[in-house]
Amino acid sequence: MILFAYRVAGILLFELTGTRWLLFIFPNLFENWFLFILIRNRYIPRLRLDSPARIGFWLLVLYIPKLGQEYLLHVAQAQPWNWIKRTLPGG
Questions:
Q1: CB distance 35 to 62 below 8 Å
Q2: What was the pLDDT predicted at 80?
Q3: What digits encode the pLDDT tens for the residues 31-87?
Q4: d(CA 73, CA 90)
């Protein structure tokens, strides 16, 4: 819930200011966290998330690749779907 609220705060700030880099600073990390928890529960249930430091570590690990995606989409305003359409057969 905290990750969702964090993203919503970023969206609200973006809507109020129009500053796109705010979406980069407030990434949509809750989906990645949800998938991480599902994978952990299924395949590595012994992986402990019993302290803020452990949770923070895994959030940082998930945040690193997400930064690249958020940068491409919201700062550079790249549209990867156009590249996919041009590159894949039948697109």
A1: no
A2: 72
A3: 999 999 999 999 999 999 999 999 999 999 999 998 888 888 777 777 777 777 778
A4: 24
Residue 85: Cβ-neighbour burial (10 angstroms; 0-12, 13-18, 19+): exposed
Calpha distance 86→35 (Å, rounded):
30
Phi, psi of 28 (to 5 degrees): -85, 70
Q: What is the pTM of this model?
A: 0.72
What was the pLDDT predicted at 75? 77
Q: Which of 58, 80, 56 is nearest to 68 (CA)?
A: 80
> Which residue has 């156009």 as its token pair?
82
Tokens 């690193």 sit on residue: 64
Confidence (pLDDT) at 32: 92
Domain boundaries, the chain: 2-87
Buried b vs exposed e over 8-35: b needs ≥16 C-beta within 10 Å? Answer: eebeeebeeeeeeebbbebbbbbebbee
